[in-house]
# Entry
Amino acid sequence: MPIYLDRPYAIPAKPERLTAQQQPAYRAKVKQLLEQHNAVMVAHYYTDPALQALAEETGGCVADSLEMARFGRQHPAEILLVVGVRFMGETAKILSPEKQILMPTLAAECSLDLSCPATAFSDFCDQHPDRTVVVYANTSAAVKARADWVVTSSIAVELIDKLDSQGEKILWAPDRHLGDYVQRQTGADLLSWQGVCIVHDEFKGRALQQMKRLYPEGAVLVHPESPAAVIAQADVVGSTSQLIKAAQQLPQRTLIVATDQGIFYKMQQACPEKTLLAAPTAGAGATCRSCAQCPWMALNSLPALVDALEGDRDAHAIHLDPAVRERALLPLNRMLDFAQQLRT
Ligand code: 13P
Ligand code: SF4
# Structure
């Protein structure tokens, strides 16, 4: 039986953001420290726009989880400052063990990762030895080490389609919405772990229907971690990078976006003439736990960046068991090779 762990984690409170007056001194300090320590920022689209801007200005990258992994691996800096959530830092360490991987805070978790502990997952795999194990990038290094493949949302449909065409049955983890979406797209025999992203799980199908009536000329862009009723109304379904690209290419001038609102910074840069609207996260009577802002991504702040670079490094460094790292490298490299094949 697939396992559903019903939110066995606490959701962190949002930290106070710095005022506009406080920011310049921190920004200057981070720039100086990055240079001094031969470090580069690798940031995700969901982080505070002030941090995304700093990554851009200092020669780092702002990207989706697949591109973050690629960028970190090929960049010559000795230190990667991964501004995102822990699985992104762990992925960087798996791919670049010789580099020091620092994170503004190691408390930046992910509900998908937290809902899929390695031991329970390994038992689940043992119960289904006939299935090819495909795990989403949003998992711990230990879960990746149990997998045949790692995948991100940008290439999930293509990979499962390929495995299905080879006659393979799939064990998928941990996001059930993404798993269901991929299953619907490919028709694969796919058994899914029952985790959710607490941010995307909150988008509401009926409220979105009502919103579309208000903006009949608009297009709907949806990240596939969202529920099926939301995906069903999408003009475009894709990873964060794919949604930004689509925002630029679509003819519509009004876009309703169902993903974390941190993406609006780069999306608006890509199409400054368009109006971006957040998809509804709370229908009538519903509660809103994240309000389309990942509470763990929000833990990344300018003071935390400074602390990572000049404070107690060990409190910010990713360390992995070498055996786990080596085993997790296999499915991660497979993913990167597959992504490369798709590109070419
Ligand atoms: P992307 O791979 O699309 O960047 O997604 C990562 C993530 O955490 C989405 O919630
Ligand atoms: Fe995890 Fe969801 Fe946050 Fe992405 S938005 S890091 S999937 S909790």
Remarks:
- The first strand starts at residue 39 and ends at 44.
- Residues 112-197+325-343 form a domain with the Rossmann fold fold (CATH 3.40.50.10800).
- The chain has 15 helices and twelve strands.
- The chain has three domains: 23-110+296-320, 112-197+325-343, 200-287.
